[in-house]
Amino acid sequence: MPVKEFDEILLLKKIQGLADEAEEKLIERWLSESEENMRTFTRMKSLWYALKVKGYSEDEALREPIADINARIDRLEAGRRRITGMRWLKIAAVVALLFGIGVVVMEVARFSKGPEMVLVENGINQGIKYIELPDGTKAWLNLGAKLSYPERFDAQERKVEIEGEVFLAVAKIKAKRFLAETPAFTVEVTGTSFNVNTNASGKVEVVLVEGAVNLLDNSGRKAGSLIPGQMAKAGPESDSIEISQVNTGFYTAWKEGLVMLENAGLNEIVKKIEEVYGVEIVIDSLKARKDDTRYNFVFKKSQRFDTVFEMLQFVAPSREMHVKEKSGK
């Protein structure tokens, strides 16, 4: 069915993310009928996105290409009822041509790959970052964490990618599953709260606070599941997922600005303090290596380093240690 026989209002609704499920199916069927239909739609989408760019030029060199694009829009409009959206496209054509044909090509390529992706990063020297996703899911990003998601979730599922440590309180939408992708496995939920922590080596830990989740392997098959109070642990090359019972508070306290270490060795505590305060703690490595003592250690990130260092000296009074700033700090 050519575009002149198709309701372009539906196309504009799809571009703006306003089409309902029935309209989405109708549009997808129309798009699959011919390459010309797809080209028409992607051109409309490209120009609509270009409208978001503020300001435009009346440079003489732009007049001819602008007139050409507007003429094509007029041909599309011929024989059909006139709608406000077509005027938007003419304005957008002016804006798009500020950047040349490359803008249209870029937007068409972006559409062919799926929705535009949003990347949220939290610097290592910033506080906890809080954001809300398009579906209402709440996310807290720890220092150095990254969260990637589409600016608009599709009708079947909600998918995000996680690097570093992120806590998610997933909005409950039963008909639309939520997928959190990590280097080792994918976490599948419909509505729940859980903590995901990945590191540079690809090791992944998922701690479930409430609800239930499935763990999917790279082929999408179910590899395990969690109930509240359990942690799943695996690496990118792991053949299996290790599941254990844990105190969830120790894995989610960072969201409230707390650092909690349970049954940790002295080296683990020192490493965490170094990470938070950007210092280097020099300790008698020989003695520390021989020490198998385990500790529970808790401190607030808002506390002065001097106070936390005194706490460390209190729990390990026999250790000789001193502090120096890391280079570049």
TrEMBL record:
Membrane-spanning regions, if any?
A: 88-109
**Keyword list, A-Z:** Membrane, Transmembrane, Transmembrane helix
**Which molecular function GO terms apply here?**
sigma factor antagonist activity
What Gene3D superfamilies would the database entry show?
A: 2.60.120.1440, 3.55.50.30
Keyword Repeat listed? The answer is no
Q: Where is the Protein FecR C-terminal domain?
A: 260-317
Enumerate the Pfam families for this protein: FecR, FecR_C
Domain called FecR protein: residue spans = 128-214
Cross-referenced PANTHER family: PERIPLASMIC SIGNAL SENSOR AND SIGMA FACTOR ACTIVATOR FECR-RELATED, PROTEIN FECR
Protein name, UniProt field = Uncharacterized protein
Species name for this entry?
Answer: bioreactor metagenome
Lineage, opening ranks: unclassified sequences, metagenomes, ecological metagenomes
